[in-house]
Write a structure and sequence with these properties.
Alpha-Beta Plaits; ABM domain-containing protein; alpha+beta; single chain; 148 residues; elongated; membrane; transmembrane helix; ABM_dom; 2 domains; Dimeric_a/b-barrel
Length: 148
């Protein structure tokens, strides 16, 4: 094979590789892009958002340990619970946000809050003597205007 033919073959092969890799990147981008509300699987999901503040880091730690146990149960046993998470405030380690997202309101009221695991969680928190300095909860329906 002559040098110029070999060079053309290598150039064509390199272009094909670039097109293949570039196509794969574009394909991955389009298949994983975040979708706005009209593409959401669960329309008008039901949320419970609770903010609380503890008297001590020990109370917060105990609460989060119990929450973690409950979260494992929820993940395994409540398929209509879409999200079940906590977050600690960056400005105050005693403030915690609890974020619960359900496919519909009955998944919270008729399933989650009536489960034996939830009753055990509430009992464990009470037995530990945890009292909140502040606790505020509010439920919401998503508007489906953004993405999740």
């Amino acid at each position: 094979m002559a040098g110029s033919e070999r060079g053309q073959l290598i150039g064509a092969l390199a272009s094909s590789v670039v097109l293949f890799v570039g196509g794969a990147v574009v394909s991955t981008f389009w298949s994983t892009r975040r979708r706005l509300g009209s593409d959401k699987k669960h329309k008008k999901a039901f949320l419970l958002v609770i903010t609380c503040e503890f008297h001590s880091e020990a109370d917060r730690t105990t609460f989060l340990q119990e929450f973690g146990r409950l979260a494992k149960y929820v993940h395994a046993s409540e398929p209509d619970t879409l999200a079940y998470e906590t977050a600690i405030a960056d400005s105050n380690p005693l403030k915690v946000l609890i974020y619960e997202r359900y496919a519909h309101k009955p998944a919270l009221v008729d399933v989650h809050q009536k489960s034996a695991a939830y009753a055990r969680f509430k009992e464990a928190v009470s037995t530990a003597g945890i009292e909140f300095k502040v606790k505020v909860g509010q439920s919401y329906y998503e508007t489906d205007l953004g993405y999740m």
